[in-house]
Design a protein that fits this description.
The complex is a heterodimer of chains A (194) and B (466). Chain A has 194 residues and is of the alpha/beta class. In chain A, 31% of the residues lie in helices and 16% in strands. Chain A has eight helices and eight strands. A four-stranded antiparallel β-sheet of chain A has the order 1-6-7-8, with no helix packed on it. In chain A, strands 2-3-4-5 form a four-stranded parallel β-sheet. In chain A, strand 6 and strand 7 form a beta hairpin. Chain A starts with 5 loop residues before the first strand and ends with a helix. The model of chain A has no long low-confidence stretch (mean pLDDT 90). Chain B has 466 residues and is an alpha/beta fold. In chain B, the strands form five sheets. A five-stranded parallel β-sheet of chain B has the order 5-4-3-6-7. In chain B, strands 17-16-15-18-19 form a five-stranded parallel β-sheet, with helices on one face. In chain B, helix 3 links the parallel strand 4 and strand 5. In chain B, helix 2 packs across helix 5, helix 6 runs parallel beside helix 8 and helix 12 packs parallel to helix 15. Chain B is globular and about 55 Å long. Classes of the chains: A alpha/beta (194), B alpha/beta (466). The complex binds iron/sulfur cluster. The site of iron/sulfur cluster has 13 residues of chain B, from loops.
Chain lengths: 194, 466
């Protein structure tokens, strides 16, 4: 994983609740054998008319040029539904580094963290304030300080993240790096068993 | 200090505990299949790593495979590619593969136990939520995501936060015609499809002890359908008798020593659970689901809830939406309702005992002409055993179609699908919208209840036929 300390960017507002993993990445894409390229199928059925890439739906935010950035802002209960990690892959591959919402489904939260996408949980009021911002507005997320700031007004909230996962994000470690770095302990454990 | 069965196994497998973080948990056995493993193989290769302990990984092809003409190339291009990738990856990384055509091939949660790979006291994972099945042997077994599959490849370990523990005690005797599938459907109906979220569940009590290993597997299998991380049952003489002599079970010399170790795997008398539930076995009737999650179940002779009387608005809307999808009415009984399909299979109920039960009911009878009946054995071994016992003849005479081993219509990822709008009584574990095919309407039930519907063509209380 690439180290991630701060995100400073405009945002894409997806003002919808209960966005489930089937919408983030439809089931038919589970037959793939690589993690790559899921970004082009992110929100596939909301993005295109009849699954046709030449017919983007004008009313969907990803197709509206005034919105861009590395931060997706969505309504509460984001990522509910199946455990498919493909949902996190699609967001990451599309270019999102953080998803901001007032509630995340459990499994999605873990899958996102395992893929370098930060789930930033804010209050309902804070979320409403973001949705009220203009499309030129920028947001700053500081992972070390655990803060999210609306740049124009300076309005700020802190968010939760466990110390271990924070260290991973800041240094670009993932669980595998941690486990491999501790191989000696693992081998010592194995020896003790026989 | 008094410990639960879960704690004994978890603690023994804890390599390290990270402060304000998860534990490093050692994994004894890792099962893989074609759908959730390719990206994990790619991942370790990109890092220049090898599979750390390939001899602790067992692979099979099940989710995407056809259940007819398995000797021919797979028609669906993407499915064929996934299965091909699994073959190549296993070869490259020296992993034992029981792929298509291999006499051990089958649904991953059926073959692990029947080969004796699954053993008491182990930690077992697989990129599949129904890994909880293996808990029936007194193992800590749970499903994982693809990044976690990669972690286990790389280090034979996982970073995991310890879940809470719950015990469900079921005491007393079961009524005639009530199977373990009815027990678990009853439990989920009682505590809802999210009632055990955050917990690892131990099933205990005289009713559980009286069950065969295969019946115990059915219960542990569906633990995930109430949100639990996994389910488990302490091993006992029934467990040891089932395991003895199986392909990969400990051989002579080692067997006695292992059994002595396994006998230590129980919850201490004064161990404390975060939550306990007590159930009276005699309260359980044959069950059937009417909705679109496994918690929406009723006794076969009961009635669908009257939606107007459900106080919680969220729950009420949920059931109204489910009934609309299912084309069913609030307050009605399901008995006598015509069904068009019967599916007997899946990692919940496709073992030899399930097929024996079905055969015992249909012997000398014929299926109703309006129903299509598909039997999909859980593994090639189950299929061979069924033939050896002459069960295949009974099914053929009854007009049932017998397929080859795989997940099949449980998730409809291959061509076995239920047409939109039609009803299927299924012995599988999920009745989600579109699970068995777009628009398909699934009624979950036991193998006996499914067999009864195959004979009569309508939802039937199996007790009328036995
Ligand atoms: S039979 Fe169904 S539930 Fe079981 S592993 Fe296969 S797809 Fe999953």
């Amino acid at each position: 994983m690439i180290p991630l300390q701060k995100i400073h960017s405009r945002f894409v507002p997806l003002e919808m609740e209960n966005v489930d993993t089937d919408q983030i990445i439809p089931a038919r894409f589970l037959k793939a054998t690589t993690r790559d390229g899921f970004g082009k199928n992110l929100f596939r059925d909301w993005r295109y008319e009849n699954n046709d890439e030449t017919k983007p739906k004008a009313d969907f935010v990803l197709n509206q040029s005034q919105f861009s950035g590395e931060i997706l802002v969505a309504g509460k209960n984001f990522g509910c539904g199946s455990s498919r990690e493909h949902a996190a892959w699609a967001l990451q591959d599309y270019g999102f580094k953080a998803v901001v919402s007032s509630f995340f489904a459990d499994i999605f939260k873990n899958n996102a963290l395992n893929n370098g996408v930060v789930p930033v949980k804010v209050s309902d009021e804070f979320l409403a304030k973001i949705f009220a911002l203009g499309n030129e507005a920028t947001i700053s997320i500081d992972i070390d300080k655990q803060t999210i700031t609306l740049d124009a007004s300076g309005l700020q909230e802190t968010f939760e993240i466990n110390t271990y996962k924070k260290t991973c994000l800041l240094n670009g470690y993932d669980d595998i790096d941690y486990l491999i770095a501790n191989k000696q302990a693992i081998e010592a454990y194995e020896e003790k068993q026989v | 200090m008094a410990k639960t069965l879960f704690d004994k196994i978890w603690d023994k497998h804890t390599v390290q505990k990270i402060e304000d973080g998860p534990s490093v948990l050692y994994i004894d056995k890792h099962f893989i299949h074609e759908v959730t493993s390719p990206q994990a193989f790619n991942g370790i290769e990109k890092r220049g790593l090898k599979v750390f302990r390939p001899q602790q990984v067992v692979a099979t092809a099940d989710h995407n495979v056809p259940t007819i003409n398995q000797h021919l190339p797979i028609k669906d291009e993407l499915s064929r590619l996934q299965v091909q990738q699994l073959i190549e990856n296993c070869k490259k990384h020296h992993i034992e593969l029981y792929g298509l055509g291999h006499p051990f091939q089958g649904i991953v949660h059926v073959i692990g136990p029947e080969l004796g790979v699954t053993q008491p006291g182990m930690t077992i994972v697989c990129g599949d939520s129904h890994t909880s099945t293996h808990g029936a042997f007194g193992a800590v077994a749970f499903g994982i995501g693809t990044s976690e599959v990669e972690m286990v490849f790389a280090s034979q370990c996982l970073l995991q936060t310890k879940p809470k523990v719950m015990r469900i005690n079921i005491e007393g005797e079961l009524h005639n015609g009530v199977l373990s599938k009815d027990i678990i459907l009853y439990i989920i109906a009682q505590i809802t499809a999210s009632g055990a979220t955050g917990y690892f569940v131990e099933y205990a009590g005289s009713a559980i002890r009286s069950l065969s290993m295969e019946a115990r597997m059915t219960i542990c299998n569906m633990s995930i359908e109430m949100g639990a991380r996994g389910g488990m049952i302490a091993p006992d003489e029934t467990t040891f008798a089932y395991m003895k002599g199986r392909q990969f079970a400990p051989g002579n010399g080692l067997w006695e020593k292992k059994v002595a170790e396994w006998k230590e795997l129980y919850t201490d008398a004064d161990a404390v659970f975060d939550h306990e539930i007590n159930i009276n076995a005699s309260d359980i009737q044959p069950m059937i689901t009417y909705g679109t999650n496994p918690g929406l179940g009723i006794a076969i002779n009961g009635h669908i809830p009257v939606t107007d009387t459900i106080p919680d608005e969220g729950e009420r809307n949920n059931i109204i939406k489910a009934l609309k999808y299912m084309g069913l009415e609030s307050g009605k009984s399901l008995l006598g309702m015509p069904v068009q399909h019967v599916f007997i299979g899946s990692c919940t109920n496709s073992r030899i005992e399930d097929l024996r039960l079905v055969a015992s009911l249909v012997k000398g009878r014929k299926k109703n002409e309006n129903v299509q009946v598909m039997i999909v054995p859980g593994s090639q071994q189950v299929a061979r055993q069924a033939t050896a016992e002459g069960l295949d003849k009974i099914f053929k005479e009854a007009g049932f179609e017998i397929r080859q081993a795989g997940c099949s219509a449980c998730l409809g990822m291959n061509e076995d699908k239920i047409p939109a709008g039609e009803y299927c009584i299924s012995t599988s574990n999920r009745n989600f919208e579109g699970r068995q095919g777009a628009g398909a309407r699934t009624l979950l039930a036991s193998p006996l209840t499914a067999a009864a519907a195959a004979i009569t063509g309508v939802v039937t209380d199996v007790r009328e036929l036995i």
